[in-house]
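Sharing a chain and its predicted structure for anyone who wants a worked example. Both blocks are below, sequence first, tokens second.
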Amino acid sequence: MSSDERDEWALFEREMRDVRPIKSEPKVPLNKSDAPAETLAQRREMAVREVVGAESNFLSGDYVPPVDPHDHLAFKRDGVQNGVYRNLRLGKYTVDARLDLHRMTVEESRRAVFQFVQDCMAQDIRCGLITHGKGVGRETPALLKSCVAHWLPQMHEVLAMHSAQPQHGGSGATYILLRKSERKRQENWERQHKRRG
């Protein structure tokens, strides 16, 4: 340490000798046992959901490849087991949420589909049903059906989709299978480790 630095340090110590820390009571008691049961993963998921909700809807409406009114829609991400996809296709999963797009414009439908998927994720819903109709006899046949077929694969949350069984609307409706939320994945992980341990 040079003499200039020592002199500077001595001056600083002389000036600060009367300084005392300000005493204040904490405004919020910090007791870890009183903390909510939320895990760090849950808080992260909520933060991501807030950011995604604040962003504009990213679903593309520029060019939508047309589908035939009677075509069956089908999509499956890599990693989805064939048995899981078969059960979705056969309507064996309980439909926990429904969205009806009848009498909506394309823009209203785009917003509704985006919000529907976000709401399902927030409620830990794994299987939903979107009724879009076939659009037979319309000026642009199967317009909403084509849009749904185009939009759903754009959404990371959607693992698979398939046209519904006749009792759920047939080719005028589509089942969607959604990812597990981070909270559900954590619960499954903990349950699996309890069985092993």
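Comments welcome. The chain has six helices and five strands.
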